[in-house]
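Run log, item B.
One chain of 98 residues. Sequence copied directly from the ordering sheet:
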Amino acid sequence: MSIPTVDDLRRAARTLRADTVVAGRDPAEVGLWATTSDSATAGRDGLDSRAHLEHLVELADLGTSHFTATFHLDDTDGAERAIDGYAERVLAAPGLPR
């Protein structure tokens, strides 16, 4: 399901947690996964690392437990460079929620 904004995701997460309680489950046991359109430029020079990191922190603050980065690549060498670039600019950045 595509949720267009962080505010929409916040509302959906609140609903999910409430429905989880109604179903008799612990909401803390239900993971919330997210990805963003930013991730389509993951590892490429066009990615605004600072804005992307701020967005990841925002997602973590609302309870996102997992984030998926999507890499659109044409070849193996490009894939390695993109993943290494994402790791250097995003995953190793200070302040990223762990």
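Observations after the first pass:
- The chain has three helices and two strands.
- The helical segments are 6-22, 49-61, 76-91.
Flagged for discussion on Thursday.
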